[in-house]
Amino acid sequence: MSDRKCGVWIIGALGSISAAAIAGAALLRKDLIEPAGMITSTILFEDIDLVAMDQIEFAGCDIREGKLLDSLTQLSDGSNAVSLERLLAVKEDLEQTKSWIKRGTCRNCGQAIESLAASDFEPKRHMRDDIDEFRCNLREFKRKKQLETVVVVNLASTEPPIPSSPSYESLAALERSIDEDDDSSVRASTLYSYSAVQEGCPYVNFTPSTGALTPAIVQLAGRKRTPLMGNDGKTGETLVKSALAPMFLWRNLEVLSWEGFNILGNMDGCILENPENKSSKLKTKDHVLSKILGYSPHSRVHIDYVPSLHDQKTAWNFIHFRGFLDARMSLQFIWQGYDSLLAAPLVLDLVRLMELAHRRGEYGLMPHLASYFKEPLCVQAHSLHEQVHLLAEYVRRVKEGPFTT
Length: 405
Fold this sequence. Notes:
Layout: E1 6-11, H1 16-29, E2 56-62, H2 68-79, H3 84-98, E3 101-103, H4 111-114, H5 127-144, E4 149-154, H6 166-169, H7 171-179, H8 188-198, E5 203-205, H9 215-224, E6 227-230, H10 237-250, E7 254-264, H11 267-271, H12 275-286, H13 288-293, E8 298-305, E9 312-322, E10 328-338, H14 339-359, E11 364-365, H15 384-400
Parallel strand pairs: 1-2, 1-4, 2-3, 4-5, 5-6, 6-11, 7-8
Antiparallel strand pairs: 7-9, 9-10
Helix pairs in contact: 1-2, 1-3, 1-14, 2-3, 5-8, 7-9, 8-9
């Protein structure tokens, strides 16, 4: 394991995924849990020089007030997912991280997200001021913690879609929009990713927010030789879809309809009650079938907020398909899980893999990380087995030697 120190800056640091990831890393350091859900802890990554869990430091920003321990306690109380013994074991770790959680921005994020902001939240400033502050925070974290690398991970609430525009497509146009303080095609996620890449920090967009990794930001990453990847972490229903849909293709069974119904009760579910924000999520969840099957069956994804579920998520899918002699048949599955605990180990994996890529001099989009995302950018492989093969091939190349352009 690498003894290089790596920082993780989490956007949305007071959320349940963040709390679960930070607590999980602390519990792993103390050998109190097994690394379930972490692919980087499997035999595939044997002999790969990944950053060790005890060399990872956490910090971040949020627009809300609160404490990390409260977020983890809510996860425990609401879902019975974290024992009191484990809460007490990481209390000090969470309190230390809390001192490094700064105030974020909700610039142009829509009413649903802006309503979450703390009561003393500053009025809208010039975008350059937000960028300067965020970059300063990253530099201070890196310097004071003596870190070799800081990986920035976006775990914030889902923003409304961002319209295509010159600022979306072109780095030069984005720079002009920022200088002129024109946020018509810029969201908070754009400011965060722009700032991170300008600082040379690897960037992961674990959200569906389309403002984070625009073509303009990807251009900037090429110039700054910085790795980045997204979008939208693949943790539940879409994970199953990407594994199951190829079966119908390989057996030459025509999928007629595929209906998905999701209910969840955490902050993610609350924000997705807003139609604007929900549209971003539906886009990443609903496209995978046509990409795998090569045609578009009747398919819809429904998402509903059920507060009593807390962090639990249930997805019921009904698949109607046609087989031999035109016989119509069906398959159903129910996926039940804790949303944050499915996501947290993926976040830890992505941190280690992005740190490795950065150390090896890799930059731009990271297609070998496709299996971690619902809508992996610039990747043609959408079935899970193809995406895992991309990761295995990457590991093989790493074992062969240094990265060459």
